[in-house]
Specification:
single chain; hypothetical protein PF0899 fold; three-stranded mixed sheet; 2 helices; 6 strands; 22% helix; elongated; binds zinc ion
């Protein structure tokens, strides 16, 4: 249950963050998951529905953005994104080398309902970047 432990971590991080700002309910979670993690977005959503039960994140909407790897071509040195494991340089057809990216697993932001006396952004918490992949070993 790779997906379940990821969903669990997402809920944990979101719950901590929501409680920190005094939220009553989390409406939406925006996550970024790299293609290299090879997780199934549908399974994550299913696991999330279970993991969020009884927490402040219950009934929240989970948004997942898939990120891609970046490669560099050894011939023309151009950078390109790798889609569907296609490492071919789009400019000259040579196989590229992995540079970075595609292994993200992070909660980018959450949108939550906060108490009426909260003086922050009424639309939610904005695009606050709470955790990077390397800072959340629980993922
Ligand atoms: Zn090239």
């Amino acid at each position: 249950m790779h997906e379940f432990s990821i969903a669990r971590s997402i809920v944990d991080v979101a719950t901590t963050e929501a409680e920190r700002v005094g939220a009553r309910r989390v409406k939406r979670l925006n996550c970024r998951i790299g293609e290299m993690c090879q997780v199934d977005g549908r399974l994550i959503s299913e696991a999330f529905d279970i993991a969020c039960r009884g927490t402040i994140c219950e009934d929240a909407e989970l948004q997942i953005e898939t990120t891609h790897m970046h490669a560099v071509c050894p011939q023309c040195w151009r950078r390109f994104e790798v889609h569907n494991w296609n490492w071919t340089c789009p400019h000259c057809g040579v196989e590229g080398e992995k540079l970075e990216g595609g292994d993200e697993l992070e909660l980018v932001s959450i949108e939550a309902e906060v108490d009426d006396d909260y003086s922050g952004d009424p639309e939610g918490l904005g695009a606050e970047r709470t955790r990077g992949a390397r800072e959340s070993p629980a993922f």
